Amino acid sequence: MQVRIDLEKCCMSGECYYNHPELFAMGDEGASVVKPVDLDTDEMRRHAVQAAEVCPAGAIFVDEGV
Ligand code: SF4
């Protein structure tokens, strides 16, 4: 699985890293970054999909096929 943040879209709301600190962190100027964690677990897949669904900017992209 790959998780990508589109920094052009990210509006720095912080929802991803407040709700899923195991997966996301606050990067430069409040934008989100994906932490270097093992993404290939059921738990991380679930959290990534949840974060993508609620991101107000639609800036989180989850590719489960990788
Ligand atoms: S929830 Fe979306 S808009 Fe908010 S910080 Fe995360 S990626 Fe950016």
Which radius of gyration do the C-alpha atoms yield? 11 Å
CATH fold-type name: Alpha-Beta Plaits
Strand content: 15-25%
SSE class: alpha+beta
CATH architecture: 2-Layer Sandwich
Helix percentage range: 25-40%
Distance between the termini: 5 Å
In short:
By secondary structure, the chain is of the alpha+beta class.
Can you characterise this structure?
The chain is an alpha+beta fold and 66 residues long. The protein has a single domain, classed as 2-Layer Sandwich (Alpha-Beta Plaits), CATH 3.30.70.20. It contains 2 helices and 4 strands; from the N terminus they run βαββαβ. A two-stranded antiparallel sheet has the order 1-4. Strands 2-3 form a two-stranded antiparallel sheet. A hairpin with a 5-residue loop joins β2 (24-26) and β3. The chain is globular, with a radius of gyration of 11 Å. The model has no long low-confidence stretch (mean pLDDT 95).
Please describe the topology of this protein.
Blueprint: E1 2-5, H1 15-19, E2 24-26, E3 32-34, H2 42-54, E4 60-63
Antiparallel strand pairs: 1-4, 2-3
Bound molecules: iron/sulfur cluster.
Features:
globular; alpha+beta; 4 strands; 66 residues; two-stranded antiparallel sheet; single chain
